[in-house]
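User: Okay, second chain of the day. Same drill as before: sequence in, structure tokens out.
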Amino acid sequence: MANENIVIGLIIGIIAYICLDIGKGIQKYAIEGFKEENSIKKKNSGIWVVGTILTSLYMFIQWAALFFAPINIVAPLEGVGLIILLLFSYYILKEHITPIEISGVFFIIVGTVLVTLFNANVGSLNMSNFNLLFFLCFSIIILLIESILIFISKLNDYKYVGIIIALTAGTTNALQTVSKRITTIPEMTLYFTLATFIFAPSTLLITQYAFTKAKANQVVPCFTSTSIILASLMGVLALNGSISWIQVIGIIIIVIGIILISAFQKKSENLTK
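Assistant: Same drill. Structure tokens below.
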């Protein structure tokens, strides 16, 4: 039964991340349209709303997935969402695909397979598995470090501020993912439902702000890799989950794939200017 639940969670998780990254792609399309003349701006406002609705739906669909499967399976699926965004960019945004990008897709698929196939966690979670003190301390420390980095960036003419803000958005998305999983613990359901509804809009707003400070091909990979790593790490340390060395290797491979896709996108964007 536990294995069946994990498969269900896996399928729902894939749907969630498809919604998220297609939504991001639509938002990117709309944001580019905002640079055009006023008549087109109105049209792209509606397009942006559609993208925002999809990214909002992700919150609830992913939440459902976390009722069936542990974080260490669901969170790495975010890499699959990047592949969907890549296809969207090729067919809708008309961006060229190079061998570097194809290599990145391959790495993401391999990493995701390793993480999911060698999972040793079960779907159930109870209060004895949850380390509230670690969750609070870890969250505060990470967000504090990122705030300090943003302040340092401000002192240096906002150098790399867009990337740092993207990392912060990835952090709040990871906290949103972990909070959703914690809501399956009856004693924590109310508190972490409220936390989820704080982290979810925060992630949306911070991501949009990052888009105004850096290119999308910088924001999305930074966001995704941070979200995958922190959610998986907190699943192990805060929720008493287990992770094998093969899964660690899988996560590293996913991040390599994300970096390769990012490198491709930067190259192609420079060529199209």
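The CA atoms of residues 188 and 210 lie 32 Å apart.

User: Thanks, on to the next one.
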